[in-house]
Design brief:
Order of helices and strands of chain A: HHHHHHHHH
CATH class of the largest domain in chain A: Mainly Alpha
CATH topology of the largest domain in chain A: Tetracycline Repressor, domain 2
Structural class of chain A: mainly alpha
CATH architecture of the largest domain in chain A: Orthogonal Bundle
Number of strands of chain A: 0
Strand content of chain A: under 5%
Oligomer: homodimer
Distance between the termini of chain A: 56 Å
Shape of chain A: elongated
Number of helices of chain A: 9
Radius of gyration of chain A: 20 Å
DNA sequence: GTCTATAAAAAGATAGAC
DNA sequence: GTCTATCTTTTTATAGAC
């Protein structure tokens, strides 16, 4: 890795961490520069404005939370459907618990997006992909005969909401057995009578 | 209402709206003063620092989201249990949809709380009250024979998460039939075999 | 690529007149 | 209570040397 790439990476990673610790608005080039160990104007060589840095990290975050990063429809079969659904949820919960900055940065950008047309569209894409992804999944489950075929729409949205909000609860360190909640949620969409 | 009370109220309401529109960090005394139509130093007569203003609005918001502000355990009977639960959820959804600033300000404070011991305790109280509230409710439902008595804990947390996250989804204007999702969620905790 | 120096604007906050 | 004037600090950002 070239020296300039190293600096670039250091800036991005430091900014990401500081966005989490202090918030995007309160993170300054001075703070980042000091932490990285370079001068403040040096950052302008890589990101010509703070907004550009914010945009860059936003795109990184979006890529990390795409539905396809977690779910592969083909992996779900009649026999493993419930277990696979539980497992994928567990994987997401673990990922979120592992990176303590992740949820906070997401929430930061969620607020930014709610105020800024530039971000909102990209975020809605991700959100929509999740809703449609879950719906396709439940339709497949219904075709396979393992999930109920009524109210697939609302049930899919319910699952998306629960998974999505686990991150929100983690923010406050709420002492919940998130995996148990997910098991419970999955159970409600699985056909009992098989 | 005295003139000073009017100014006080104007400052608080303007700040609340601006916290939503621009975020807490990016809302300045200058902006508030201009909007209210007073000078910047005048605000210091009512709130001796920006932090004090932030604290005040935080407490207002906390009062508005207490579990007891929505749920009254005694109102739930064997006959109306499901309908009452659905109705209370609807009321919360409507309240959130009515005040477009509400969800954003909550999210702002959620992030603040996740970084600040002073806020986190108060917020955890509210959050905890909600979790325990739902649990008590489901226990009552179980005693009345209308809800399942297994996994009451996880089921209660699931309901809390769904209701809580509706606000999050509203932030992005996600086109979801929130009421239908809530109906679906309530249905999953109601005993089918009566 | 990274630095020093510096500009321009705006922040939070106070002093003190009225 | 509300104002004008002002202070201090910090911000984003640029110019230009090395």
């Amino acid at each position: 890795m070239k020296s300039s790439e190293k600096t670039f990476t250091a800036i991005v990673e430091t900014a990401y961490r500081m966005f989490s610790e202090y918030g995007i608005a309160k993170t300054t080039y001075s703070m980042i520069a000091e932490e990285v160990g370079i001068s403040k104007p040096s950052i302008y060589y890589y990101f010509k404005s703070k907004e550009e840095l914010i945009n860059y990290i936003f795109e990184e975050v979006c890529k990390a939370i795409e539905f396809s990063a977690f779910f592969t429809l083909k992996n779900f079969t009649k026999d493993n459907f419930k277990d696979e659904l539980v497992a994928v949820g567990f994987r997401m919960i673990e990922e979120q618990a592992k990176d303590k900055h992740f949820n906070r940065v997401i929430q930061e950008y969620l607020l930014l997006a709610s105020r800024n047309k530039k971000y909102i569209q990209r975020f809605e894409m991700v959100q929509q992909e999740f809703l449609v992804g879950f719906e396709d999944l439940l339709k497949r489950g219904s075709d396979l005969g393992v999930t109920s075929s009524v109210n697939v729409h609302a049930k899919a949205h319910m699952l998306a909401m629960i998974l999505d909000n686990i991150g929100n609860f983690m923010l406050l360190d709420v002492k919940i057995d998130y995996k148990q909640v997910w098991i419970e949620a999955v159970a409600t969409i699985i056909r009992d009578e098989v």
